[in-house]
Each structure stands twice: as C-alpha cells, then as structure tokens.
Write the structure tokens for this entry.
Amino acid sequence: MIEIVENEIVVEIVEAPEIVIEVGDGMVLPEWGMIRGDIENQGDLMEELDLLRGEIGGKADRNHDHDDRYYSKEDVNSLLSDKADSDDVYNKAQMDIALAGKVNSEDMIAALALKANQSDVEAELAYKADSDEVAEAFQRVNAALSQKADKSGVYSKQETDSALALKADAIVCEVSGNPVRVSDASGAPVLSLSVDVAAVQSGSGDASPSNIRPISGWAGTDLTVNGASVSISFPSSAGTVYGGMLNVKSGILTVTHVGVDLGSLDWIYDSPYTRFSSLLPVESKDRTIRRVWYRCSCYKVISNGTSLANVPNFSTYIGFGMNELRIYVHDSRYSTVEEFQPAVLGQMIVYEIASPVTYQLTPVEVNLLLGQNTVSADCGPVTLWYRVDTKLYIDGKFAELQALILEN
C-alpha cells in the first residue's frame, strides 16, 4: 500500500510471501517488506511510484522553510480568518450598480454649502407661527373680510363727503302717545320705538278694604303698526312686569317696578303704634326721601313726602319708613298677625325698585309707510323716532300755516 502523508511517500507491503533471491556472488539484495531483490524489477510498484513522482514533482521538501514566496498552511488559515464569507459581501458588479445611483461626494459638499445651518434654521423657526395658529389667523381674516364691502361697490370718504355737502340734513321727528299718528314718514324703518310698560289698576278713588282696586301687570305686549299686530313676549325670568320700558328696536326690556302680594310678607305687629310692619323683598328707590311710586290694591298709600308722624288718623293706610326697607299698614280691624295676614292675602303693592333690571329680547324691526302711519301698544304709551319725508314735511308745515292764516 502506498500513501502520501505530509508530502512523504510511505510504501508498505502487507503479507508479502517470503521469497529469498540469492545473487551469484552470495550477496543478499535489500529487503522491501518481505520482498527481496531490485525494486525496479517490481513493475506494479514502479508504476505507482511514477504516478507519485508526477504528483509531487514541483513540491517543496518537507523541511523546506518556504521562504517569502510561499504561504504556509497556518499563514493561509490566519489570512482567511480575517476575510468575510462571499455571501456576506457585494461583488464588484453589485457595488458598481449601487454606486451608480449615488451622488458624488464633491457634489454633495457643494450642495450642502448652499443649505442653511440647522441652528440657524431652528433660530428662524422660533419666530414662526405654528401651522394651527396660521390656519386660525386665516379664518379670522377671512371672516373679517367677509364683512367688508368690495372697494368698487362703495364710495370713498371724499366722495361721500362731497355728496353729503350737496344734501340737507335729514329731518328726524319724535312723537309720543297711544296711539301715535304721523303723516310725513319717509317710508324707512323707525329709528327708535319704545313702549312704556305700566301696571293697570282697575276702579277709581282711594283703595280701601271696602274699595278694592286690583292691580295687574304684563307678561308681554301687543304692538300694532298700521293695523298689523306684533306680539312680543317677556322672558319668564322677568315674571310679571308691573313697570318698565321696552325698546322694540334693540330688544332691551328694563324692569323698574315690582309687585308684591301683601299676604306673602313676614309681618309683625307694633302694638304701641297699632300697626303691622314688614321688610320689602326688593329695595325701593329713594326710600330715604320717600319719593317712591306706590300703588296698593286695598289701602290708601301714604308715601309722597308725607311724614308718618303727620299722617291723618285714617282707619287704614299703607306707607314706608324713612330709613328702613320697611312698609307699614294700619288697619284698626286687626290686632294680631294671625288675623291680619289671611285678610291681605292676594292684595298687591307695586313700587319702584332702587336698581332696575334689564333683559335682552329679540329685536324687532318696524317699517313705516310713506306718509300716514299709526302705531300703538296695549301695555302703555309709545314713543316713536322716525325720519320724515322732506316734501311731505314742508307741505304739512305750509298747510298748518295756511290754516292759521284762515283762522285769523
């Protein structure tokens, strides 16, 4: 058997027959395993050796130092350990394709030189509005612009002043009553229309237990303009209104008076003065000088500057104190609260309050006809401010002048 081990040829003859070849001169030839004689006479062995010579011809000797022209196995293994596997790297063709899509570093540097520095950008952005703030600002601007007239559709200040210089001032008139009648209206909406809201007391004469005069207030008003009715309801929070004023055009209701059921008050009996007294639920106006508008459904009111000390010896009356938010009732028929309070239940006193209360209603636009107009309200007098038609106004004045001339 023949092997090559680390570049060394090893020939081993196994179980060779014991053959002894003797040479004529008595010399014994070298032994090869169990074969003696000249090895070259072993044809099959020589064929193997020739093959081996061809395979190892050009190989270095086993102990050769390989000098710097060769790498040893250890050198090769060491070098290979630092190399990447082919599956883990790109080959040249793959790299060329990838690099073809990349920008040149010099071009990149030149491009970056034209860009702003990050810190400069951040500094500039610190002064910029947030996108949401910008959107909100645009909405506000658009909303404001929607309220503006197009420049081509309006007159300039100079044009307006020039046109007005050629015109006479409009004539505005005020008239009050219920109803109010005008004959020279310009046919435009009223400038102002207010309605007095006044409590209504039925009957006549001084109120007394024997002459009950009921008092009623208002939950709204019916306005009549040239025969057409306009109903306006007061807010429920105002309750029944016993006095005030409604500005129809602005929709503002001002409540100046309240009504109180005498039976709802917390009365006490002042025996030295033989009278009953109670605090008012809402402070009355000008109570220190006693100039307050009062109405009572069952007693004569003593309030307009009359000192209680000088009140005539009426058997019944109602009044108020000078320095207190208090009213007094003298009724000789009763001497206890238990008798008096049920007797006055449902009887009203109405008075002006110190601080009026306002309520916002829906404004109502009232349009007048050209010339004749009649306006009235069911809750009280009407005050009307309107713009007159100049020709009708002048014609009316001439008619009045002519009537005066004819009378004289």
